[in-house]
Amino acid sequence: MQGELMFANSSSAISAYRKVGVESGVTIADPHRLILMLFEGAQQALNRSKLHIQQNEIAARGEMISKAIMIIDHGLKASLDVKAGGALAEQLAQLYDYMTDRLLQANLRSSVEIIDEVSQLLGELHDAWAAIGKKPAASGKLAQIEKLFETGMAVK
Fold first, then answer.
1. pLDDT tens readout for residues 52-92
2. Which residue pairs, CB below 8 angstroms and at least 24 apart, start in 100-103?
C-alpha cells in the first residue's frame, strides 16, 4: 500500500518525467519510487537554475525553471487523484499551483530566494514521501504524516 498512495495516474507521471529529459529507471520504477524521482528531478532543475542565475545565463535559467515547472505541474500535480484523495489532494494541488506561480516569478526576477523557497517546499514533501516508503512501524510525527497520505491520497 505504501507505494500505492498519493498519485492517481503513474503512467501520466512517467510520461511527464520523460518529457523533461530524465529517462533512467522510469519504466521499471514502482509508483512510490517514481514520485520520489519526480521530486528529485524538480530539485535538480532548481539547483541548476540557481547556477545559471549566478552565471547570468538567462536562456539556461529559463530552461531549468521551465523543466521544474513541467515536473511539478505535469508530473506531480497531474498525477494527483483528487476524487480519491479528497481535501488533502486538493491542498497539494493548490500547493503545486503556488510553486509553479512562484517559479514563474523567480524566472522573471532572477530570484534565487524564490527558488530556494520552492526547493524547501519540495524537499519537505520529498522527505515525507520517502519516510512513508520506509515504514515498518511509524510513530509520532511520521505516523501523522503517513495517516494523512493514507486517508487522503491514492494511486490507481
1. 999 999 999 999 999 999 999 999 999 898 888 889 999 99
2. 100/69, 100/72, 100/73, 103/46, 103/65, 103/68, 103/69, 103/72
